[in-house]
Specification:
This protein is of the alpha/beta class and 260 residues long. The chain has one domain (2-36, 101-259): Aldolase class I (TIM Barrel, Alpha-Beta Barrel). Helix content is 45%, strand content 14%. The chain is built from twelve helices and eight strands. It has helices at 2-8, 25-41, 60-67, 93-98, 109-114, 119-131, 144-148, 152-162, 164-170, 192-209, 226-233, 250-259; strands spanning 14-18, 50-54, 73-76, 103-106, 135-140, 175-178, 217-221, 240-243. An eight-stranded parallel β-barrel has the order 1-2-3-4-5-6-7-8, surrounded by seven helices. Bound molecules: phosphoenolpyruvate. Phosphoenolpyruvate binds at residues 18, 20, 179, 184-185, 221-224, 242-246.
């Protein structure tokens, strides 16, 4: 799966669902059953976009058996920066890779906020995922205070700069997700013009940090809904979306996938 993901990640549009800490065996089963006929019809992709789902660790087995032969990618929401040892509660990239995981969210703003993940730790986690053959989905984005202080570009530039070595090594086998923190789960979306401006900035930063990854996919995340997905995805530097809340409702997620 990950080789396949790496091959297709050169500015490939992606729609990736982030279930966060939601779900349960029965609820996941109904959600997957409601989505799979439509997703399968496209072999896990729309005419252009690839589709992925990131679930809590205990449900990865469920994704593995439901999505194995569908072309829909599946992944974790975090990974340890360590390879093995006395790190109770952590899950290594090697363990996830052995299990068939193809994608891992890295440095989601909720992990930066609630688990104190620094730019340095995020970069180490991305490197660990990449070394295990898992495509890291590196999340960056500014808080409302940073945007209001005019620091949105410098914040994101610093987040990307910390990842420069891994970006250089990854080439296009990495996905970046721009998620303004003020737009995540708040119902407030960046306007298409605001999002495009940041995506163009990120693409420039990627060129500066690592020419090799200048063509990786850069997704937008933050209250993407069926009603705003098309306009956001039509922006020239937006390669699809990382979808939180709306990925828990089959009809909404499918409409967003269709918009890509
Ligand atoms: C996310 O969790 O990455 C996200 C973008 O959430 P939401 O779509 O709910 O804002």
């Amino acid at each position: 799966m990950s080789e396949d993901i790496a091959k297709t990640s050169q500015r490939t549009p992606w729609v990736i669902g982030n279930w966060k800490m939601n779900g349960g065996l029965a609820a996941n089963q109904s959600l997957l059953a409601a989505m799979l006929p439509a997703l399968n019809a496209g072999g896990g992709r729309t005419r252009r976009a690839r589709v992925g789902v990131c679930a809590p660790f205990p449900y990865l087995a469920q994704l593995q058996s439901a999505l194995e032969d569908t072309g829909v990618a599946w992944g974790a929401q975090d990974v340890s920066d360590k390879t093995s040892g006395a790190f109770t509660g952590q899950v290594s990239a090697g363990m996830l890779a052995e299990f068939g995981v193809g994608l891992a969210l890295i440095g989601h703003s909720e992990r930066r906020q609630y688990n104190g993940e620094s730019n340095v730790l995020v970069a180490a986690k991305a490197a660990a995922a990449l070394a295990a053959g898992i495509t890291p989905v590196i999340c960056v984005g500014e808080t409302l205070a940073e945007r209001e202080a005019g620091q949105h570009q410098s914040t994101v530039a610093a987040q990307l700069a910390a990842c420069a070595p891994v970006l250089r090594q990854a080439g296009s086998a990495v996905i970046v997700a721009y998620e303004p923190v003020w737009a995540i789960g708040t119902g407030k979306t960046a306007s298409p013009a605001e999002a495009q401006a940041m995506h163009a900035f990120i693409r420039d930063q990627l060129r500066l940090a690592a020419t090799a990854c200048a063509d990786c996919s850069v997704l937008y995340g933050g209250s993407v809904k069926a009603s705003n997905a098309r306009e956001l995805f039509a922006q020239p530097d937006i390669d699809g979306g990382l979808i939180g809340g709306a990925s828990l409702i089959a009809a909404d997620f499918l409409a967003i996938v269709a918009a890509a």
